[in-house]
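Human: For the file, kindly provide a plain-text protein record giving the amino acid sequence and the backbone structure tokens, at your earliest convenience.
Assistant:
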Amino acid sequence: MQLPSLSFTVLDTETTGFTPRVNRVIEFASVRVEGGTITDTYEQLFEIPVEIPLPVQVLTRIKQDALKDQPLLESRREEILKHIGSDTIIVGQNVSFDLKMLKGEGIDLTGRPWIDTSMLASLVFPELASYSLGYVSRILALHHEPVHRALGDVHATLELLSRCWERLISLPPDLHAVAVAIMEHSAPGYRLLFDVLPPPTAKDVPSWLKPPPPLKRERVRAPKFAQAAFEKPKTGTVALVEEPLDPATLEELLHWAVTDPSTVQWIAVKNLDATLKRTTVPEGVRVLHHPSFLLDFEAAKVFARQEVYTADESTLALKLAWYEPQTFHDLPIHGEERAIWRGKLACTDTSNAYVRQFAELPSVVLLDHRQLLHFLIDPAHAAHGSLSTNAHIIISDASMLEDTASLAYGWSCTLDDLRAASEGDFSLTRFTDLLQLWIEKVRLAQDSHPIGKQDLTMPEVTALKEVIDDLLSERRRTDTVETQLKSLRQILDPTLLPGRIAWIEQRQNGSQFIKSIPERISTILGESLFSPYPTTLLIPPASADHLPEILPQDFAALSLPTPVEDAPPSISVEPSERVESFLETIPQGKTVILVPSRRVIEGFFISHTEKLEAKGVTLICQNLSGGQERMQAEFLAAPSPCLWLLTPWTYEGVELPLGSVDHLIVQSLPFDHPSYPVTAKRCEHYRNAFDQYTMPRLRHRLFRLLRTFCRHRTKAGDVRVLDERLETKEYGRGVAAYLRALGGAPSTKKPLVPQKKEEKELKPISAKKPPTKKKPPNEEKKDQLSLF
């Protein structure tokens, strides 16, 4: 192994959870390296006074009995420090977590120089789809023994550091120089690491920094669907066109659109980034990126002049220099770098890089719902007058319009973004601390808490609004920060609460948001979109009369016949079947199983992980197998058979290549959660909320889940829906008929475990291509390397 000429200690912990002083360290391991040679290896289990949670026992394979007669950690603090060494750099995978947990046990290493190998890997392995240690070990064939234990993680981390070092020393002089220059302003660990980089000997840019050739995709032909979608309705009338399950037909729409220069087609999609990843955009289409995904070059110049960087700021700064991105997805962004991008580098509606997109628009424009809806209601927006009299707006994924319009017309403040932007800003840091104290006082440990008038008349809110006014009056922060502060100021104003739904939300990873949206969306859509512009909505089949909160009740709508060329998957309704049977008799190939809650997933994880591992079956579980990117990457890399358990709401956003999934199993009907603030409030609009609001949204979601599966499925991929209500309830029988209709015909049940036949060994593949370098539209390329 090639290693930097430093004294360092690679360490790892196994813990009972994620919260210092609440959860405990049950295992510690370390390897000390001096002069490129391993000089010390240490591992130790620790007894704790509480039971190890069952999910942790399964994750770590450390059972309660294994801790019996082991020492208490506090009795081994000095021993641990001796093995770490007094003058070594601390190295670890996501090492900040280990440092926090050790500090909670009375071993404070947070003042020592440290290096996070996951961040280093994201710098020099842009082609990887995830930077989790398990996935990286599989793809790079790292020595990861013993599996599931702290010392195994240490061995893999040490080898990963070596692989990163090999790529760092392959840099040519200009990229080497900018790396050293940026890291001089970084945290001590990174500064020390880059100080010992040897003089560069390479002359050319290494292959891993070069963009790959564009992917070639077979074009989908759907002329009848395209013809129906482009039949422009009269102004004031909404055309409703049923979408096929095959999502690739959007590409056909784009190809058809460029052939008609007489009409400016504004094609809006739910998720622009995901669309661009799976679609070849033809010449003549202008892509309008959301401001939060565009780099504000003026903000980047300010960022480049910072005298001191945090560790994550320095890795992001180096990526800006090396990869010269135009958008968020042009560089391998990772971890807390996301919040730094949003807090310090992203465009706003008024940024030059964003406004420039709307100059000299061609006849076809591709953008997302939120952008379109936002600038249609904002006269001050640079794009407000961009829609000419010959415009035709086509909304793809229109069943999501209620949700995306709520976001477009809403106000939002993200605590992570404010926290990232407050680095080096005492006033903003103090304000963010005060805001978080108010949030914790109000939400009462709830994941989702509606904000009422009583919450907004607290003395703390008055103080927060005064501080916001002071911060805004200084006019010295980025546009992104000021936009968040202005949104928060509106949310905290009790006079603006009537007619809106406001709430505090905390995600599973601890991220917190404060949001406020209009209670009634359809009225705003009617006034700003449907009345002034010819609009076509691409909707799920048989939903023309079931678009609550999207179409105003008195609005004229024209449902066009759409003979769609579609090849739907086999869909079978099996109310008597149980998910457990698929966890015991394993389907061949790769299977996605949708279950209704994280609690249910955890139960299956506890009861089946070790049994399946003994059979050579990979089980991936939401919230227990990392974040979405990691789960996607590990699902692709895992050999068959493989099972992935996740919720329907998460699966809607999953991105996998075509041919990745053999079977989709839906355990229960994915109804909206009735206590969610938005759902609860909008149900009040209807006499029979279940039939008029809940059921249409259920059918829309089922269609979207099936279409997501069609993006991922193999040619013979099939769907099974298991909910017993499909047989026992009248509404369930209606849903069953709808599902069968989407499948084209009643399905004959086929076994998921065919006779075993010889299979070719599949090599693990990466789901993410290395970032590409793009020029901003209508402008020469900015030289971000020179900024640093």
Notes: The first strand starts at residue 8 and ends at 15. The chain is about 40% helix and 15% strand.
